């Protein structure tokens, strides 16, 4: 019943993946310029984004139940 | 009254589940994995704790400085400290969710009381470790907590003075105090693993990890918290000073708020009363299952002549209630004639679920009040074996 | 109700097992195990979905039912921790066995609905019956 929505979920996941890339950039920046709290915060956001992507993939039926 | 309240709470708990399930796939629902979440945070605590331990110096002069060094000079030291602190809070939240869920969904009494009791011990020991953690920093807050605790302990009749000495590692705060605190922090943390053995011993395949999504999310959340609200010490403790206010961590330090309002002894008494009450909860409702509106079908019974010793029931029983013993005599049925093992049900563990019956392919297990032959008859009737069905 | 007997003849018979802890069952069943309003569906309440022997589902098919199902609690919420997962596994295996015996595995179903999901449960059963009718029911 969520057929039409799954493409939307994938698009959202894609967007979050781009954000995650930005977080990687922030992590490098933080480490390089000694702004370590920025780096670790970006790491946290990255992990949360990954969690969200996993959920979205599941909701889009790209992954199955374990 | 109480019983109806519990039923209402059960209904509400399950209502919450359906809401979560509307947003998340069912097998991602964190409420189904509260024990696993607690274990996840405990693991994070142990790992981050070891890293902090490497820098910690348990002495009156050195403790504060060593924590400050970790916070300000060790790369990502402040992050690890923050993760340790916030993971402790998250751990407590997870345990409490776990406790209330098991309580409200009726998973705490009769054959399950061993898990509940060990759980209460886990709760107490965890709370204690959480509190002693705040002593180790040896800032003003630690000092105040120490003095409130000493007062509370001293007010215990008969053994008060002795308790105080055990707590402080000597008469009064001295050089041996912080090593004692360090032990009182790490010792309980290790005890948790002994208690967890007790907690799991009657559970087959305990789900000790939440789904991977929640590992990612929880770690991420801890990193975010540790970076956004860096953990910090208060002003260093001054010998002889008696600090007034302190920053409250509502998760672990609430008894101390109480201790400041009333007398420390009362706060201690309240905590003890709560814990004792928690431990008798499984025994507070002395009603038969019938009175609870359940059909008590009786504990599983092995039909000895049919058991072939195939162990299938043993693998499926979720409460480790089935033991396989060397067969004392051969079975009667053809399949059972040459058996090596015989299944035995441990009554005190059996929750009357019947899962073993579904597992047994040899009609060697029965729930006494829902016999196989009766079920078969109802099936035949429902399937219309008597009256022909138009197709 | 007046039209029921006639309709019943055209509806495929179904035997199901419902866990005591799953869907709220007050007023759900008649004394003879049939579902109120669905005389062709028999539901036997069991203490846990894991109690059900796969053999019972086969027996139901052999005795004339067009389909058989088991309904447990939502996955992860089994009161007995693992009953519904174990049952789901057993049903998977039973289906494989049935298709080897040239019996349509779609005649066996597994549902998972909680206390508050009675409507969804009844809907799922109705859909199951419809599917069975679509596939000709028997054999
Ligand atoms: C250190 C904290 C704790 C951890 C890591 C923990 C972990 C677990 C785990 C992994 C399970 C198995 C869940 C399953 O596989 O179904 C479990 C079950 C259980 N826990 Fe805990 N637990 C903790 C504290 C507590 C507390 C404080 C209580 C309540 C006083 C409690 C009560 C129970 C009960 C009653 C069960 C049995 C549930 C059942 O039979 O289905 N636990 N716990
Ligand atoms: S009924 Fe069977 S599976 Fe359930 S607890 Fe008892 S012995 Fe174990
Ligand atoms: S599953 Fe049945 S036959 Fe096999 S060991 Fe258990 S009781 Fe015996």
Give the overall silhouette of chain B: elongated
Spatial extent as radius of gyration of chain A: 15 Å
Low-confidence stretches of chain B: 387-391
| C-alpha end-to-end distance of chain B | 52 Å
The major sheet of chain A is characterized as: none
Bound ligand species: protoporphyrin IX containing FE, iron/sulfur cluster
Q: Residue ranges of chain A: pLDDT <50 for 5 or more in a row?
A: none
Query: Helical element count of chain B?
Result: 14
Give the averaged pLDDT of chain A, no decimals. 89
Counting DSSP E segments of at least 2 residues, the number of strands of chain A comes to 0
Oligomer: heterotrimer
Largest sheet data of chain B = 2 strands, antiparallel
Q: Give the strand content of chain B.
A: under 5%
The CA-CA distance between the termini of chain A, in Å, is: 21 Å
Strand order of the largest sheet of chain B: 1-4
User: What is the strand content of chain A?
Assistant: under 5%
* Largest binding interface between chains: B-C, 52 and 48 residues
Question: What would you report as the Rg of chain B, rounded to the nearest angstrom?
Answer: 27 Å
- Overall 3D shape of chain A: elongated
Report the helical percentage of chain A. over 70%
Count of individual beta strands of chain B: 4
Summarize this entry quickly:
The complex is a heterotrimer of chains A (about 70), B (about 400) and C (about 140). Chain B is mainly α.
Provide keyphrases for this structure.
heterotrimer; A: 66 residues; mainly alpha; 82% helix; B: 391 residues; two-stranded antiparallel sheet; 4 strands; disordered C terminus; binds protoporphyrin IX containing FE; binds iron/sulfur cluster
Task: Summarize the structure in words.
Chain A has helices at about 5-30, 35-60. By secondary structure, chain A is an all-alpha fold. In chain A, helix 1 (about 5-30) runs antiparallel to helix 2 (about 35-60). The radius of gyration of chain A is 15 Å and the shape is elongated. The two termini of chain A are about 20 Å apart. In chain A, about 30% of the residues are buried. The mean pLDDT of chain A is about 90. Chain B is about 55% helix and about 5% strand. Chain B has 14 helices and four strands. The longest helix of chain B has 28 residues, at about 75-105. Chain B starts with a helix and ends in an 8-residue tail after the last helix. Chain C is of the alpha/beta class and about 140 residues long. Chain C is built from four helices and five strands, in the order H-E-E-E-H-E-H-E-H. Mean pLDDT of chain C is about 85; it is low at about 1-10. The interface between B and C is large, with 52 and 48 residues. Bound molecules: protoporphyrin IX containing FE and iron/sulfur cluster (2 copies). One iron/sulfur cluster (SF4) binds near residues 313, 343, 364 and 365 of chain B. Protoporphyrin IX containing FE binds next to helix 2, helix 4, helix 5 and helix 8 of chain B.
């Amino acid at each position: 019943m969520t057929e039409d929505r799954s493409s939307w979920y994938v698009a959202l996941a894609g967007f979050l993946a781009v954000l995650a890339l930005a977080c990687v950039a922030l992590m490098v920046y933080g480490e390089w310029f000694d702004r370590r709290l920025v780096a670790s915060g970006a790491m946290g956001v990255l992990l949360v984004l990954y969690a969200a992507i996993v959920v979205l993939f599941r909701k889009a039926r790209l992954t199955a139940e374990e | 009254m109480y019983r109806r309240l519990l039923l209402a709470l059960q209904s509400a708990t399950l209502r919450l589940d359906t809401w979560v399930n509307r947003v998340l796939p069912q097998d991602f629902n964190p409420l189904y994995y509260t024990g696993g979440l607690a274990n996840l945070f405990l693991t994070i605590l142990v790992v981050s704790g070891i890293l902090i331990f490497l820098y910690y110096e348990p002495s009156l002069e050195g403790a504060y400085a060593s924590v400050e060094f970790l916070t300000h000079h060790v790369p990502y030291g402040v992050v690890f400290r923050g993760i340790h602190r916030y993971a402790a809070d998250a751990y407590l939240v997870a345990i409490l969710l776990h406790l209330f869920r098991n309580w409200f969904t009726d998973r705490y009494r009769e054959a399950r009381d061993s898990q509940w009791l060990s759980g209460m011990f886990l709760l107490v020991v965890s709370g204690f470790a959480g509190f002693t953690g705040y002593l180790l920093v040896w800032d003003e807050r630690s000092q105040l907590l120490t003095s409130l605790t000493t007062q509370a302990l001293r007010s215990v009749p008969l053994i008060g003075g002795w308790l105080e000495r055990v707590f402080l590692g000597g008469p009064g705060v001295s050089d041996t105090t912080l090593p004692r605190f360090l032990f009182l922090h790490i010792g309980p943390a290790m005890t948790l693993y002994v208690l967890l053995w007790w907690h799991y011993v009657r559970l087959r395949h305990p789900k000790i990890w939440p789904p991977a999504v929640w590992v990612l999310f929880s770690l991420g959340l801890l990193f975010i918290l540790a970076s956004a609200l860096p953990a910090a010490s208060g002003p260093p403790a001054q010998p002889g000073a008696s600090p007034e206010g302190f920053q409250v961590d509502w998760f672990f330090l609430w008894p101390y708020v109480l201790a400041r309002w009333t007398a420390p002894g009362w706060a201690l008494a309240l905590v003890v009363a709560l814990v004792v009450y928690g431990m008798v909860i499984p025994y507070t409702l002395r009603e038969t299952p019938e009175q609870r509106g359940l059909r008590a079908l009786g504990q599983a019974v092995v039909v000895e002549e049919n058991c072939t010793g195939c162990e299938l029931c043993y693998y499926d029983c979720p409460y480790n209630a089935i033991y396989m013993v060397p067969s004392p005599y051969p079975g009667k049925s053809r399949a059972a004639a040459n058996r090596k093992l015989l299944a035995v049900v441990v009554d005190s563990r059996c929750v009357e679920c019947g899962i073993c019956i579904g597992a047994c392919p040899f009609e060697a297990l029965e729930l006494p009040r829902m016999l196989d032959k009766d079920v078969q008859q109802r099936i035949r009737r429902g399937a219309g074996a008597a009256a022909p069905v138009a197709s | 109700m007046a039209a029921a007997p006639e309709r019943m003849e055209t509806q495929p018979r179904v035997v199901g097992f419902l866990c005591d802890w799953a869907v709220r069952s007050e007023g759900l069943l008649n004394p003879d195990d049939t579902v109120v309003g669905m005389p062709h569906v028999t539901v036997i309440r069991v203490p846990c979905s894991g109690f059900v022997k796969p053999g019972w589902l086969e027996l139901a098919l052999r005795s004339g039912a067009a389909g058989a199902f088991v309904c447990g609690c939502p996955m992860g919420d089994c009161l007995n921790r693992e009953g519904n997962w174990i049952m789901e596994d057993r049903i998977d295996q039973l289906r494989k066995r049935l298709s080897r015996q040239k019996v349509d595995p779609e005649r066996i179903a597994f549902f998972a609905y909680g206390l508050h999901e009675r409507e969804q449960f009844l809907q799922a059963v109705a859909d199951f019956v419809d599917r069975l009718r679509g596939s000709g029911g028997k054999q």
